[in-house]
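URGENT: need a sanity check before tomorrow's submission.

F., can you look over the Polynucleotide adenylyltransferase record below? I want to be sure the sequence and structure line up before it goes out.
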Amino acid sequence: METSGLLARLDDRGGLDVLWRLLPEARLVGGSVRDLLRGISVHDLDVATPEPPDIVQDILKADGVRVIPTGLSHGTVTAVIRGVPYEITTLRRDEQTDGRHAVVAWTESWEEDAARRDFTINAMSLDRHDRLHDYFQGSQDLEAHHVRFVGNAGRRIEEDALRALRFFRFDARYGRGTPDHEACTAIAERLDLIDGLSAERIASELLRILTGPRIQETLQAMQDVGLLARIVPAPNLVLLRRLLMCEAPEDPVLRLSALGHGQGELLAERLRLSNADRDRLRLFDSDRPDLAPAMSADDIRRARVEQNLSVLLDRSWLLQAALIGVPSIEWNRLRDRLTQEPQPVFPLGGKEARDAGIMPGPGMGQWLAKGRLWWMNHGCLPGRDACMAYLLDEMGEASE
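Structure tokens as predicted:
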């Protein structure tokens, strides 16, 4: 079909024109076509072509184009033209799938390649003559804000179970109203396939959902088909909604902590999160130090000593969500006070302990810990001399 000048919407066609000179049958595919139709900026240009990957490499290299074999087993190479990467994939069909991986074979049929894609809005292609090829009415679905699978929804999910999560992520961004009934039914009937996915793939999709649009509606729809509880046991949709109402930062780990409130350790292990994110989830579940808008200046300083500032701020959002669930000047003021308070530092260390006559070893650590506790009990205010005087007095009493 003819288009209305979609190619004219591209900011820079230099590298694309080079590809079309070398691979005249190639087309833009996937998200770039979808975003051109939506009239938004396109950042990554993915290209498909009927030529096998080894032929593609030979053609590009013969013209001096740098080629990176990024995924030859799946027919993908990356051409770098004027510093810009273009991912080029040979047309494929699935020979065998197991719910996670596919064995593919090359094809020259554009419709066959489009038929193996996940959603109709991702199955369109655009050729160098500015013609849109749309075998499954993806442009109509895009205009209608309707996300649906290409062909049989159940078969698409059986090919790759991660598409169950991807469906809800795409529906949140491009859909409107009630999600596609066929898709939801197919997902509900194939929940056991989720167990075969890697934790990392599940976590990636879930965290993207948690930073996307229409979070509450999307998670509720996932809960309705049984998918959400398969990933997050006993999801706390109420606390997450209250966190969103508080206008907390758009942080996926913070939102995950609200969604799986009290299950930080379990979720960290189940989703195989990075070490940094694992530590955050565990600390979110802690109840020390206490946080409240009416904290004294001494309590603020003690809190800064007990826990990292970023964790304190995140915990303050979770507490605000749990306690009031609405924006609050008082809680914002608490966060300002926490941020503006300089980091208190206990003024004694090993050198000072040795100067006081304390020999290195377990005993030194015990004396320093005792001095640090006294310092904290006094609002983290006493300086070096006051802390030393306290320790010397305590040592004197202990030796009597």
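My own read: The chain has four domains: 1-144, 145-231, 234-344, 350-399. Residues 1-144 form a domain with the Beta Polymerase; domain 2 fold (CATH 3.30.460.10). If you see anything odd, call me.
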